[in-house]
Amino acid sequence: MFAGGCFWGVQGVFEHVQGVTKAVSGYTGGAASTAQYETVSGGETGHAESVQITFDPAKVSYGKLLQIYFSVAHNPTELNRQGPDRGTQYRSTIFPANAEQARVARGYIEQLNRANTFGKPLATTIEPMKAFYPAEGYHQDYLTLHPTQPYIAINDLPKVENLKRLFPANYRATPVLVGAATASR
Questions:
Q1: pLDDT grade for 179, boundaries at 50, 70 and 90
Q2: Annotated active-site residue in 1, 4, 5, 6
Q3: Separation between Cα atoms, residue 152 and residue 76, nearest integer Å
Q4: What whole-number distance in Å separates Cα of residue 180 and Cα of residue 152?
Q5: 93-112 pLDDT, tens per residue?
Q6: Residue 14 appears among annotated catalytic residues
Q7: Is the pTM value of this prediction over 0.85?
Q8: How far apart are CA 8 and CA 50, in angstroms?
Q9: Residue 178: which residues within 8 A CB-CB, separation 6 or more?
């Protein structure tokens, strides 16, 4: 699971990655009782807006997902914010599924910091895996369903274009969508 600002853009990017079979927007880090948008938006729940990614490791590696996460899905140097969104619910955080993913993510962050890739230290944290709560249905596939919405057009569509430009071998034009009904739209 990756958190990096508003889940619309993170989900939208990963839905376009070859080998990703599912990318679901949701909440991670807090209690089940507070896992709803109106409550999480207050920034006091411990939740981060996150995306649970299911992928085929024969088609895309966890390392490649990390590379895409750090390169195009969000700005990993911003602490508790992304673009116009502010608060701990927009933090840059990785919730690894196991010890190996945690080790790889830690090593990748250390490598980026040593190389001073972003000109300043990363704000990205690695938090223990906690329960994932899918977001409300209207948040799923939001980028695909609302491409002309100003927030999406300004903040998130450029991320998908950067994915296409920087990772052409990993880009797929037709996104894998959460909602079966949305696939026909």
A1: confident
A2: 6
A3: 19
A4: 21
A5: 999 999 999 999 999 999 99
A6: no
A7: yes
A8: 9
A9: 22, 23, 24, 25, 140, 141
